[in-house]
Design a protein that fits this description.
The protein is an alpha+beta fold. It has 2 domains: 3-417, Creatine Kinase, Chain A, domain 2 (2-Layer Sandwich); 430-493, no CATH class. It is built from 16 helices and 20 strands. The strands form 7 sheets. It has a 7-stranded antiparallel β-sheet with strand order 3-6-7-8-1-10-15. Strands 18-19-20 form a 3-stranded antiparallel β-sheet, covered by helices on one side. A two-stranded antiparallel sheet has the order 2-9. Strand 7 and strand 8 (99-103) form a beta hairpin. Helix 3 crosses helix 13 (415-421), helix 4 packs antiparallel against helix 6 and helix 10 (359-374) packs antiparallel against helix 11 (382-390). The radius of gyration is 22 Å and the shape is globular. The relative contact order is 0.14. Residues 64-80 have low confidence and may be disordered.
């Protein structure tokens, strides 16, 4: 299975309003000093196709966030104004309205995914530093809310077989996604946009903004289960599950578990496993779990039943252990199961012991310690500043980065591999070919998308379909590109990509 993450980063520049932040985000992306190529091929995208068998006329925007209205229409119609680049590591780095956004390359292993997600943090921060040299200082946050009613996402993508029925996907995934926040939530002070400020500590930042069980939208009517049908691959063979209801994680193990457990559930569904659990009003259940001050996390199910969220997750984890233990590529499954069981055991016995691997626990412990030492009430606005500081990617000021440096947060990948991922793509997916083309022939690339590359910047363009090569094919093709003396030689050597 291939998977990836798209993370919109929060950004703050003193004295800048929303309209100005679009230009600032664009400038941050353009400040990246590494090799890159572009522009992005938007013609290849189809975000309005729905898994349920239809195409919507338009995607909705959040009416509560009116701040973009004066600039959004112009911005959306001027794609050439976007900063949108593909890097040598196969990733996409661009601005989405007033946010720098980093989409990892396609990854085949959890280790590669986490390394590239953390590499993205470094790339966005390095770009912000470079931008600050000629402009105002920029603060970058890997979080999901500006605490003024606007939310931005960390979207997950999973490539799955086309023949899995939509109804089976939704039924299996909804209870899992509603309760996954127990170990994948980033934590949050307060509730938006109801006005209940710091009187509640939540598990999931996105919970306040999830209102539907299923929807194609990502900017409004955000769903537990997203129905967008845009595979970025052969649509006859593949679907891409697009998850928009999760948080951006600072903790490496939280990222690995979030994606690993979700991938395991999708493998089960592909093997005809079906869930018997039906959550009553899933969006409301997601918010209730997130805001539960007792940390009992009881979920209402259809049929006048209740069940603890931990127990719902155990149903999935135990089924995965039974069904997937003999998978040929079982290393990721074993890793995910080990992390999954350890998290559920720890949360059930004493959630406060999971600060080393669960973001919301680490954040709550830091805030509790400061609140008690300073005698602050939960509604003190300074606590939101601490919340933001946890997700600050600046290694000198970020609270999570401090936990990393003191060894309190457990790592999942090595520092050397994070640094390597800033420049090199995964060697076993089509990202390897994309990255090699950017590295060797970036100036001869006319446009790119996930599925292919338009080559020939001199006006005589040709399209290279990257296909879906297996591990060996991807690595061999990337090597041929790097060894080629010319673009034509590279294209001839790639004619066998499938």
């Amino acid at each position: 299975m291939l998977f990836g993450l798209e993370t919109e980063y929060g950004m703050h520049v003193d004295g800048k309003g929303p309209a100005e932040m679009i230009a600032e985000a664009r400038s941050v992306v353009r400040a990246w000093r590494g090799e890159s190529a572009g522009p992005w091929d938007y013609a290849s995208e189809s975000p309005r196709l729905d898994m349920r068998g239809f195409e919507v006329d338009r995607l909705n925007r959040d009416r509560a966030d009116q701040r973009w209205d004066k600039v959004s229409d112009h911005y959306e119609s001027q794609s050439d104004e976007r900063a949108d680049r593909v890097l040598t590591n196969g990733a996409r780095f661009y601005n989405d309205h007033g946010h720098p956004e980093y989409a990892t390359p396609e990854c085949r292993t959890l280790y590669d995914l986490v390394a590239h997600d953390k590499a993205g943090e470094r790339i966005v921060w390095e770009s912000a530093k470079a931008h600050s040299e000629s402009g105002e200082p920029v603060s970058i946050y890997k979080n999901n809310t500006d605490f003024h009613g606007a939310s931005y996402g960390c979207h997950e993508s999973y490539l799955i077989p086309r023949d899995i029925p939509y109804e089976d996907l939704q039924k299996a995934l909804v209870p899992f996604l509603v309760t996954r926040q127990l170990y994948a939530g980033a934590g949050k002070v307060g509730v938006e946009p109801s006005g209940r400020s710091g009187t509640v500590f939540q598990l999931l930042q996105r919970a306040d903004f999830i209102t539907e069980e299923a929807s194609i939208d990502t900017l409004s009517r955000r769903p537990v289960f997203n129905t967008r049908d845009e595979p970025h691959a052969d649509p006859e063979l593949y679907r891409r599950l697009h998850v928009v209801s999760g948080d951006a994680n600072m903790n490496e193990r939280a990222t690995a578990l979030k994606v690993g457990a979700t991938a395991a559930v999708l493998r089960m569904v592909a093997k005809d496993w079906r869930s018997e659990l039906v959550v009553r009003e899933p969006a409301k259940a997601m918010q209730a779990i997130s805001r539960d001050p007792s940390c009992r996390w009881i979920v209402e199910l259809e049929g006048n039943r209740t069940m603890a969220a931990v127990d719902i997750q155990r149903v999935y984890a135990e089924e995965a252990a039974e069904m997937l233990s003999r998978e040929e590529d079982g290393e990721d499954i074993f890793t995910a199961m080990e992390l999954w069981m350890a998290a559920l055991d720890g949360l059930e016995q004493d959630w406060s012991t999971m600060a080393h691997s669960v973001d919301w626990v680490a954040k709550r412990r830091l805030i509790d310690m400061y609140r008690e030492s300073e005698g602050l009430d939960w509604d003190d606005p300074f606590l939101r500043s601490l919340d933001l500081a946890y997700s600050d990617v600046n290694p000198e000021t970020g609270l999570f980065r401090a936990l990393e440096q003191e060894g309190t947060a457990r790592s999942f990948v090595s520092e050397a591999d994070i640094v390597r991922a800033m420049e090199e793509p995964p060697a076993d997916t089509r990202a390897a070919v994309r990255g090699a083309l950017v590295e060797r022939f970036g100036t001869e690339i006319a446009a790119l998308s996930w599925g292919g590359v338009w080559l020939g910047a001199d006006g005589s363009r040709s399209y290279l379909d990257l296909g879906m090569p297996n591990e060996e094919e991807a690595g061999a093709a990337a090597t041929k590109v790097r060894k080629a003396l010319s673009l034509n030689e590279a294209l001839r050597s790639l004619s066998a990509i499938s």
